[in-house]
Amino acid sequence: MLAAGLACAGTAPTAEPSARVTSRLVWNNPAPWFGGFSGAEVSPAGDELTLITDKGSLVTARVIRAGDSSIRDVQITNRVQLRAANGRTLKGKRSDAEGLAIGADGAAYVSFEHRPRVARLDLRSAKTSPFQNHPDFTGFEANKGMEALAIHPDGTLYTLPEQPPVQQSSFPLYARDAKGWRVTHKIPQRGPFMIVGADFDAQGRLYLLERAISPVGFRSRIRRFNLNPSALREETIFTSGPGKFDNLEAISIWGAEDGGLRIILLSDDNFLTLQRTEIIELTLRE
């Protein structure tokens, strides 16, 4: 359900809930296409991942867990290249997929940062079918477009740019329903962090993965929002120190059998040997 109007945060961020790292591994594969993971969706049982990369790969993988439910390994089960609606393989800047969202009904969507657009995605054929986008999308700064994409439990699709528009101090939150796209909220920017990923939990709370770059490495932060029509309710649930993790860009939420909320994060190594593909899982206790 779309909010009735624009809203900015009405209260300061609350204290962090207890979020702790319960899995961390470096994921390696010799395939030349491997790397650049920027969007992810985890299955409801936490045992399968669907991923996209900066060079247009659509990947599925099986999550292997140890007896304590921590992630022990991730095994690729399929990889295909994203295609245009006419079946042609997406190449170059048109293949720069950044955000992935899969609804409870199986409907899938992908956002692209270069040649900015959001498209429907057929998970079986890997074909993308763009629909009408908001006029703002083409005006985003180069390489700062829609990195974050998420579906609310009610089926509404949301997206945000990586950084606020020029001379603005907040990120516009765009929502799409049968009537098209509109801005429903303004997410306040706090500090040097930029938005790189998004997901919703079953209660409809929005989680934003943010990144900042420091002289000694990347920093990551996760903020959670209740999309109240009159005033956003905001809390920070996780912040990492400089260089603690690699370039975390993908986020996906699932609920474990023990009642804890799990957050899976993946890093985008930019296809550089100096970086690495990391898989991090957090357990969040309310």
Structure description:
The protein is mainly β. The protein has one domain (18-285): 5 Propeller (Tachylectin-2, Chain A). The protein has no helices and 20 strands. A 4-stranded antiparallel beta sheet has the order 1-20-19-18, with no helix packed on it. It starts with 17 loop residues before the first strand and ends with a strand. The model is unreliable at 1-5 (pLDDT under 50).
Number of helices: 0
Topology as a string of helices (H) and strands (E)? EEEEEEEEEEEEEEEEEEEE
The CATH class assignment is Mainly Beta
Strand order across the largest sheet: 1-20-19-18
Q: Biggest sheet, open or closed, and with what strands and sense?
A: 4 strands, antiparallel
- CATH topology-level name: Tachylectin-2, Chain A
Describe the structure concisely for a colleague.
The chain is 0% helix and 50% strand. It is an all-beta fold. A four-stranded antiparallel beta sheet has the order 1-20-19-18, with no helix packed on it. Strands 2-3-4-5 form a four-stranded antiparallel beta sheet, with no helix packed on it. The protein has a four-stranded antiparallel beta sheet with strand order 6-7-8-9, with no helix packed on it.
Write the layout of secondary structure elements.
Blueprint: E1 18-26, E2 37-42, E3 48-53, E4 57-65, E5 71-81, E6 97-102, E7 108-112, E8 117-121, E9 128-130, E10 146-151, E11 157-161, E12 170-177, E13 180-188, E14 194-200, E15 206-214, E16 217-226, E17 233-239, E18 248-255, E19 261-267, E20 278-285
Antiparallel strand pairs: 1-20, 2-3, 3-4, 4-5, 6-7, 7-8, 8-9, 10-11, 11-12, 12-13, 14-15, 15-16, 16-17, 18-19, 19-20
